[in-house]
């Protein structure tokens, strides 16, 4: 038998709980600035994003896109419109190969190479200034709680007993589901629905409200049509009733205001929201206030205990990997440089990685109308874009929301690669780039990104081609030789 190691006391500048995107970024930033850092992670390094979130989901979507190319190539005069052969076990290997390729960047070895003490244990506060992790007792000048979130199973009687798939388990599948029942019409649910449909599964979505509730209605309507055209059965404003195991896998009733549908499926995926991981950490002993949505923080991401910061999903705000990295930067400026940096979500972007992608930054039209009253709305459609026409991908649009005085407060793009094109509008909203700069930029032709120049130019068109400019041009033409 191995002798039990004696307790060890550690003192550091920064103790980070959680080895996901927020925690790793905060730990690395502090260590590279010379701070003594301890990082505690009880599970897999890289957290949700690397292991069960962004990386595997986008890898699955890439495989689904490759399969979909077969079915639409004839629109370009290429090949026969035949169904592709799907080797789902190979898809599984592809997903985990991508995870494996990225994992060294988030590994224990890499962070220990930065001089960070990595402890693979569960952390629990014992006081406002101390916590324990395994045999380690740690005191720190600053603590960071970055424990992320997890999928929630909605309180549908019988659903939990089915042990449904979540984002934490669906990427472990080696065999393709014959029929996937997706509970939840948010970004995760829709991304997985479209991906599995393109890989050959029958797919049914049920949502108690409506799909993509945070996005512009025009984008939602377009995506609703795309999903149905691809053969996905979509039930909105619907209840899932009496789910139970059956010979086929799962049976249930879907109830809407008008009808009831009996459904059998081989697998159930729950994608109906997430819950912050705040349990069993002794937050009460640390004097850290928290609730159902996560840890309470101020604009500088400080908790009710000024020594403790909360970053990422657990802080109860927007749940995106890029927000986790952004939070880490706010922490570094506050804790390392002593600057009163605060979060600013006015130019917050998000992307739903469907095909076409739905990308948004800033406020929606409804939010701007509520705050400012009268607004200016500019919409340009992808069917006026030459590259979109060349690729037969004309579905989609760009929508700009401006104040009466012409300040852009929100932008939505629905198009292939919209996520790659939305960032310029974040710069415009933040004031780092002017709308006139976008209108006057030289955009390469033909590109999908020309749609941004076209939309910006549309705002100035009435002024440029109005009565006064025409009068001025007429005078100039009379004077010029």
Automatic annotation (TrEMBL):
Binds 1 FAD per subunit. FAD binds at residues 58, 147-149, 313. The keyword Hydrolase does not apply. Residues 13-327 form the FAD/NAD(P)-binding domain. One of its GO terms (molecular function) is oxidoreductase activity, acting on a sulfur group of donors, NAD(P) as acceptor. It holds the Pfam family Pyr_redox_dim. Its cofactor is FAD. Gene3D superfamilies: 3.30.390.30, FAD/NAD(P)-binding domain (3.50.50.60). The keyword Nucleotide-binding applies. Keywords: Disulfide bond, FAD, Flavoprotein, NAD, NADP, Nucleotide-binding, Oxidoreductase, Pyruvate, Redox-active center. NAD(+) binds at residues 184-191, 273. Residues 349-455 form the Pyridine nucleotide-disulphide oxidoreductase dimerisation domain. Disulfide bonds join 49-54. Belongs to the class-I pyridine nucleotide-disulfide oxidoreductase family. This is Pyruvate/2-oxoglutarate dehydrogenase complex dihydrolipoamide dehydrogenase (E3) component. It comes from Devosia subaequoris.
């Amino acid at each position: 038998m191995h002798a039990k190691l004696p307790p060890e006391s550690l003192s550091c500048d920064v103790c980070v709980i959680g080895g996901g995107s927020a925690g790793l970024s905060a730990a690395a930033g502090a260590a590279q600035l010379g701070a003594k850092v301890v990082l505690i992670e009880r599970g897999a390094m890289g957290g949700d994003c690397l292991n069960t979130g962004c990386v595997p989901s986008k890898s699955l979507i890439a495989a689904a896109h490759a399969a979909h190319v077969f079915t639409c190539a004839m629109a370009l005069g290429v090949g026969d419109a035949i169904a592709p052969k799907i080797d789902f076990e190979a898809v599984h290997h592809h997903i985990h190969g991508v995870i494996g390729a990225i994992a060294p960047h988030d590994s224990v070895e890499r962070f220990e190479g930065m001089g960070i003490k990595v402890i693979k244990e569960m952390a629990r506060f014992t006081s406002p200034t101390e916590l324990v992790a395994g045999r380690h007792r740690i005191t720190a000048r600053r603590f960071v709680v970055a424990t992320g979130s997890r999928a929630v199973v909605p309180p549908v009687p019988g659903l939990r007993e089915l042990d449904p798939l979540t984002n934490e388990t669906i990427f472990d599948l080696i065999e393709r589901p014959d029929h996937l029942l997706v509970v939840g019409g948010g970004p995760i649910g829709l991304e997985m629905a479209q991906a599995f449909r393109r890989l050959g599964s029958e797919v049914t979505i049920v949502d108690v409200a409506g799909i993509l509730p945070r996005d512009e209605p025009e984008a939602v309507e377009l995506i609703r049509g795309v999903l149905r055209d691809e053969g996905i059965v979509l039930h909105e404003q619907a209840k899932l009733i009496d789910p139970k195991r059956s010979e086929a896998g799962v049976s249930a009733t879907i109830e809407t205001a008008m009808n009831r549908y009996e459904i059998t499926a081989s697998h159930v995926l729950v994608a109906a929201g997430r819950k912050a991981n705040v349990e069993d950490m002794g937050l009460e002993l640390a004097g850290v206030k928290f609730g159902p949505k996560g840890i309470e923080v101020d604009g500088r991401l400080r908790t009710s205990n000024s020594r403790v910061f909360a970053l990422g999903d657990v802080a109860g705000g927007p749940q995106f990997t890029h927000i986790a990295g952004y939070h880490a930067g706010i922490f570094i400026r506050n804790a390392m440089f002593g600057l009163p940096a605060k979060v600013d979500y006015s130019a917050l972007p998000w992307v739903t990685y469907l095909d076409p992608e739905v990308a948004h930054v800033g406020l929606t039209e409804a939010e701007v109308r509520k705050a400012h009253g009268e607004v200016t709305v500019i919409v340009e459609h992808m069917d006026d874009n030459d590259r979109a026409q060349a690729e037969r991908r004309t579905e989609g649009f760009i929508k700009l929301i401006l104040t009466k005085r012409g300040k852009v407060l929100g932008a939505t793009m629905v198009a292939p690669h919209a996520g790659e094109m939305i960032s310029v509008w974040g710069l415009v909203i933040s004031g780092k780039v002017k709308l006139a700069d976008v209108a006057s930029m030289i955009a390469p032709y033909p590109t999908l990104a020309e749609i941004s120049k076209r939309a910006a130019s549309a705002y100035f068109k009435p002024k440029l081609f109005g009565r006064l400019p025409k009068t001025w041009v007429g005078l100039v033409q009379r004077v010029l030789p």
